[in-house]
Amino acid sequence: MVRRYSCISNEAAAEKKMERLMFSGFQFSASGIRFSSSEVVLISDGTIPTNLEKKFTFPGFVDSGPSVEELGHHAGYYSLPHSKAARMFYFFFESRNNKDDPVVIWLTGGPGSGSEIALFYENGPFQFSKDNNLSLVWNQYGWDAASNIIFVDQPIGSGFSYTTDDSDIRYDEDGISNDLYDFLQAFLKEHPQFTKNDFYITGESYAGHYIPAFASRVHQGNKANEGIHINLKVKTLTSPVPFTIGVCTLFFAGTGRVCRGVELGLREGFAIGNGNTNPEIQCKAYTDFALDNGLINKNEYEDLNKLIPPCQKAIEDCGTEGGDACRISRINCFKIFYRIMDIAGDINQYDIRKKCGGGLCYDYSKMITFLNMKTVREALGVGDLEFVFLNDTVYNAMMDDAMKNLEVGIPALLEDGIKLLVYAGEYDFNCNWLGNLRWVDAMQWSGQKEFNSSPATPYLVDSEEAGTLKSHGPLAFLKVKDAGHMVPMDQPKAALQMLRDWMQGKLVRTRGGHNVSSI
């Protein structure tokens, strides 16, 4: 195996520490570089995996239950036609219940983290056993119980995805969303039986940037009749109660009323979990969240609030000028987060109930060891490519993008009836629920007034409160109880039910409260 690492000196690491703490998803000091000609990773015989997909079974699976051989578990690469040499790696798990279930794509944040974090520790079909070995067991609450789910390693350079040409490095959401659109077109060409299924985009953390851009790119492609139509576009109204979208008010299920030439409905959409979407609003929420949760005192709060105006001004400049202005905005705004972390002590930024054990705050060593085992790489068809947990090249390339506002493209999607769920675990500090709720409340669209005035009601799973829900029309916000940054890891049962209810239109407020159901 050929290994390439980006080794950061102690001084450089100290300079980067403040940036790493915010929106990074996870911290890792040394990671594979797969871009420059001197750092290309080749498999041992001098070749590179190309366009392939194979059914696979993970070594070490020991649990009873559905036969893995009977299920459609796939892994592979697709080349990207608008790149020089990029190959995007993915896992695809067909629904363990019904192949007509929606297709869901999951995007992990970082930027530069592979999707395998979610696959093994959050909402994938498998989990590592509690024994001190690398065996796998079924995840009872894996999202493949309700969907045909794709986990993709992106941007290029993340996870097992790679390129041999440094022009394939992406620096903004336009490049990333185009790559994802090309990937999805290739996937549906390979799996035409799933083109009829409803389609949902999901993810967390820095995916709060990826997801709105990708949803907009899919919608744009559908409207322009590019390639294969993707069922993100809505069909018929499924809500039994009035709501307003654009200039129309719709009243009864199945009326088929048309508004602005688009047949409206509450199917297909995108969901953002504990995301970084509107940094200007979310950065301002750090001090309020910290005070409310006892991380700082009132005097510290007042001092820290003096840092907010220069942060907001710098973010505004980043949006208009880019480049150096974005770098200045990171410095100005990260000061707020970093100083709170210094005051709070050794807390886990992703779950303030916990201590942070080491640079990652969580132990992912099983995953890293497992994915770099020869038997696993052979099963996946990745040759001698080494799994990269967090790619510093990808991370650094996206830093000018980090402080940009991706909420700006969402209203147009809502107006066309594409639904959005924003959910957040209540104990995450990094991308906390308060900042997420504030940008959702501030978003200007035709249903803004009605959403803001809608009551927050308990969200129930098996008759127990699992969170607090606000919704109007295609927009829903869910604050998840007893969860941190990674909701499917902390509350797997509630997360699966949330997905089901959302895809079935049950997170829409009805006259009697919110529809809920049990697993």
TrEMBL record:
Location in or out of the cell: Secreted
Gene3D superfamilies: alpha/beta hydrolase
Signal peptide location: none
Cellular component terms per the entry's GO annotation: extracellular region; vacuole
GO MF terms held by the record: serine-type carboxypeptidase activity
Enzyme Commission number(s): 3.4.16.-
Pfam families: Peptidase_S10
Domain of life: Eukaryota
Family of the protein in this entry: Belongs to the peptidase S10 family.
Protein name: Carboxypeptidase
Organism listed in the record: Trifolium pratense (Red clover)
